[in-house]
Amino acid sequence: MSLGDSHWDVLIVGGGPVGACAGALLQRAGGAGRRPLRIGLLEPARPAPPAAQDALDVRVSAWSRASERILTTAGAWQRLPAERIQPYERMCVWPAHQPARSPDALVFDAAYAGERNLGAIAENRLVQCAALEAFEAAGGTILPAGFAGLEIGEQDVQVRTDSHLLHCRLLVGADGARSKVREAIGLVAHESSYQQLAIIANVRTARAHERTAWQRFLGAGTLAFLPLADGSSSIVWSVEEALGRERLAQSEAQFEAELLAASDGVLGAVQLCSERRAVPLRRLRAERFTAARCALIGDAAHVVHPLAGQGVNQGLLDAAALSECILQAQRGGEDPGAALPLRRYERWRKSELAPMALAIDAFNRFLAHEAGPLGHLAQHGLAWVNRSETLKRLFIGQALGLSGELPAAARPAALS
Ligand SMILES: Cc1cc2nc3c(=O)[nH]c(=O)nc-3n(C[C@H](O)[C@H](O)[C@H](O)COP(=O)(O)OP(=O)(O)OC[C@H]3O[C@@H](n4cnc5c(N)ncnc54)[C@H](O)[C@@H]3O)c2cc1C
After folding, report:
1. Which domain holds residue 168?
2. Could you tell me the distance, in angstroms and rounded to a whole number, from the CA of residue 16 to the centre of ligand 1?
3. Ligand 1 atom showing the smallest separation from residue 279 Cα
């Protein structure tokens, strides 16, 4: 693809699941009654979609109901092959000092909330590819180049890639946690390490996963088994860094034995069926999500601990909220980079994200990390939640991604 045609209404940097989805939402809706928006997306590393016979990738996420709806509105969810996605109907959360199948383990059941499931587990790459295809099918243009720098002017933003100069009226930074866009704009980000590694891998288990997401809070970290479509499970095991490196260096048999013990045998014997990968865990929050003619979405704006499965789900809510604000402005004849819609986006998403990020950190500190009376108290908190109808409904709403102020694309009417 030539980059020669250099003037865009919206230029998105980063074609991860969040950037690609924002592009597809804007491109599909951006023509209503007016000149369609010209949208370009810079992505230097577009992945190939997995072939039908490929084993499931180790990078998977739990996609909430809100995400399913947003991706459906974007034209992406319909493209996912059913045989690679696994809806899950239950979540079972339990602390180290109790068995998973005890009455005090916290169980969230989709049927309890009148839902068919709580969400679905699918490979990140699969969803990313579907969203990129949906963007192109709607008329968007993928530019195979990396962002290198910018200059913000009154009327537009000049964007440099390695070899070209592009112009846009709105620049969207969706280039992940190490966002160069955020840095180039000069937006301050508060960042720190959890001093944990997440070990991820796919495993076969002696017992069936029962379409359930299992999560155990350990003394120093958490261990999740997410059900996969081929009957295996994806593990996300967050442990202190030194211990994580030790686990990675272990033989497969040693690792499997440790994993069996850490899971309290909830799914029986465990056998690795993929490589083991480690991801250092960091938290990040940009102080501002917008600047003149620029906005950040997804991990470029905020990164949270994966224990609550919220990162990409919140990123898709950013994509939907930003699209809604821009499209509303466009319908009123405004420029997509105008200040007012960007301010509305920022206020909206920051007010939704701040309490959620605090709650995730508190969970990680008390349930996964804290020894002593406070940790003990927090671990018993699971049993209290289990006994409270109101709290359980609140948590199910969170898992479905249906609490708070939702963009129209995440509301039921958006589902075709
Ligand atoms: C172990 C683990 C488990 C997780 N599980 C879950 C879960 O169950 N549920 C959940 O909601 N979240 C989960 N997350 C979080 C989730 O993976 C992230 O929030 C999500 O990947 C962020 O998507 P994104 O599109 O914002 O960024 P990314 O996926 O990082 O995509 C950024 C894109 O930008 C491109 N890019 C980078 N630099 C440039 C540049 N200079 N120019 C142009 N393009 C560029 C990259 O090539 C990439 O395609 C998990 C995270 C981890 C670490």
Report:
1. 7-191+282-414
2. 6
3. 53
Q: Cα of 212 to ligand 1 centre, how many Å?
A: 24
**Phi and psi for 303 in degrees, rounded to 5?**
-130, 135
- Does residue 208 form part of some domain? no
Residue 316 lies in a domain: yes
The closest residue, in CA terms, to atom 48 on ligand 1 is: 16
- Phi first, then psi, for residue 179 (nearest 5°) are -50, 120
Q: Please tell me whether residue 273 adopts helix, strand or coil conformation.
A: coil
Classify residue 388: in a domain, yes or no.
yes
Q: What pLDDT, in 10s, does the model give residues 322-374?
A: 999 999 999 899 999 999 999 999 999 999 999 888 887 777 776 655 566 55
The answer to whether the CB of 399 is under 6 A from ligand 1 is: no
Residue 144's nearest CA partner among 274, 62, 267, 43 is 43
* pLDDT of the residue at 377: 61
Q: What are phi and psi of 228, to 5 degrees?
A: -110, 160
Say how far apart CA 4 and CA 26 lie, in whole Å.
22
CATH number at residue 147: 3.50.50.60
Our mutation pick for probing the ligand 1 site, out of 1, 61, 185, 196, counting the most ligand atoms within 8 A of Cβ, is 61
Strands 119-123 vs 60-64: parallel, antiparallel or unpaired: antiparallel
pLDDT at position 415 is 45
Is residue 13 lining ligand 1, measured as CB closer than 6 Å?
yes
Cα of 97 from ligand 1 centre, angstroms: 34
Nearest to 368 by CA among 107, 92, 93, 58: 93
pLDDT digits (tens, 9 = 90+) for 42-65: 999 999 999 999 999 999 999 999
Q: Which of 1-5, 251-255, 349-353 has the lowest mean pLDDT?
A: 1-5
What total number of domains does the chain contain? 1
Which atom of ligand 1 is closest in space to residue 298's alpha carbon? 26
Pocket of ligand 1 contains residue 180 by CB under 6 Å:
yes
Q: Within a domain: residue 286?
A: yes
pLDDT of residue 1: 46
Torsion sign (Cα): 105, 110, 111, 113 = positive
Answer whether 235 contacts ligand 1 (Cβ < 6 A).
Answer: no
pTM listed for this prediction:
0.95
